[in-house]
Design brief:
The structure is a single chain. With 160 residues, the protein is α/β, with parallel strands linked by helices. The protein folds into two domains: 2-101, Rossmann fold (3-Layer(aba) Sandwich); 105-155, no CATH class. The protein has helices spanning 2-12, 27-40, 64-73, 89-101, 116-125, 146-155; strands at 16-21, 52-57, 78-80, 105-112, 127-134, 137-144. Strands 1-2-3 form a three-stranded parallel β-sheet, sandwiched between helices. Strands 4-6-5 form a three-stranded antiparallel β-sheet. It is elongated.
């Protein structure tokens, strides 16, 4: 039952991060199996989707030659990492942020420094990219999905 619930969450996910043991002897077969499960859930050609990142983990266990060969063959949505050494984690975080923020709208809003409630609301409903205080006014640069941005624009109509 727990496995089924996990699969249902995958269907609703904004991004699928497929973590592979790249050092395993049967790594390609494992990948094929996972892709078949995702296809059965309705994800056609997910490997080429903007909702998918493939993490090639355990690069610390690869020989230098195999690591170089894997890096040479890696696709744009494949990130090589070692969870043990931390190598590649920065690239993974950047790739996740890029995928999740694609399609976001960016805006800068003015909020009175004394209006902590409005500023808190922005933090709860958007991704705050930058905040600058000029006099008694915060200039808050945010990113949000278009539907959320429409809600924000309605609430902050006089704050642009």
């Amino acid at each position: 039952m727990a496995f089924r619930a996990t699969l249902e969450e995958v269907v609703a996910a904004d991004l699928i991060v497929h973590v592979r043991d790249i050092a395993a002897k049967n790594t390609k077969e494992q990948c094929v199996d996972v892709l078949k499960v995702l296809e059965n859930l309705g994800f056609e050609d997910i490997k080429n989707s903007n909702k998918y990142i493939e993490v090639l983990n355990k690069t610390d266990l690869l020989t230098d030659n195999r690591k170089a060969e894997t890096a040479k063959k890696a696709k744009e949505n494949q990130i090589m990492i070692s969870a043990v050494t931390g190598d590649g984690l920065g690239s993974l975080v950047s790739a996740i942020n890029k995928k999740l923020s694609s399609g976001y709208v960016v805006a800068t809003l003015k909020v009175a420094a004394a209006d902590g409630k409005k500023a808190a609301w922005l933090y709860d409903n958007a991704e705050v990219l930058e905040k600058t205080l000029k006099g008694e006014t915060w200039f808050i640069k945010i990113a949000a999905e278009p539907a959320i941005m429409a809600k924000i624009e309605g609430k902050f109509a006089n704050n642009k």
